[in-house]
């Protein structure tokens, strides 16, 4: 239960970084923290105490296998999520570099005033 509380705190810290901060880089870091929190949540859902890999071992009964094996679906979702998060973060970093080259600042308030 404590892990879910820690994940919720991490999620809301990321949301705070995205919603309140005016610096583009801090907003990107907040988005990254939210992505990590979601990945941890999926992994925590699939965790099983003393679990085994979801591979059928010869001689093991199906009932015993189902009781002891870990759910592989959250692991697959997290691997996909990591790739998507990485591509989104790279795109946002490249976009923020272009914004800095054009306006000379990462501050959104300054960029809005310079918009003309």
Give an overview of the whole structure.
By secondary structure, the chain is mainly α. The protein is 74% helix and 0% strand. It contains 5 helices and no strands. The chain has helices spanning 2-19, 24-46, 62-68, 73-103, 108-114.
Outline of the structure:
With 116 residues, this protein is mainly alpha-helical. It has 5 helices and no strands. Helix 1 packs antiparallel against helix 2.
Present the secondary structure layout.
Blueprint: H1 2-19, H2 24-46, H3 62-68, H4 73-103, H5 108-114
Helix percent reads over 70%
Outline: elongated
Class by SSE composition: mainly alpha
Summed up, the helix count is: 5
Largest sheet: none
Rg, alpha carbons = 20 Å
Can you tell me the residue ranges where pLDDT is under 50 for at least 5 consecutive residues? Answer: none
- Beta-strand fraction estimate: under 5%
Overall number of strands: 0
CA(first)-CA(last) distance: 51 Å
Secondary-structure element order, as H and E? HHHHH
Integer average pLDDT: 89
Please supply descriptive tags for the structure shown above.
elongated, 116 residues, 74% helix, 5 helices, mainly alpha
């Amino acid at each position: 239960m404590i892990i879910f509380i820690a994940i919720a705190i991490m999620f809301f810290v990321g949301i705070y970084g995205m919603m309140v901060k005016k610096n583009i880089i801090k907003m990107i870091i907040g988005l990254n923290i939210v992505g990590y929190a979601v990945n941890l949540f999926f992994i925590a859902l699939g965790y099983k105490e003393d679990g085994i890999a979801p591979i059928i071992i010869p001689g093991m009964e199906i009932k015993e296998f189902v009781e002891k094996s870990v759910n592989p679906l959250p692991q697959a979702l997290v691997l996909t999520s990591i790739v998507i998060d990485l591509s989104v973060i790279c795109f946002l970093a490249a976009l923020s570099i272009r914004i800095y080259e054009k306006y000379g600042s990462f501050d959104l308030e300054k960029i809005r005033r310079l918009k003309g």
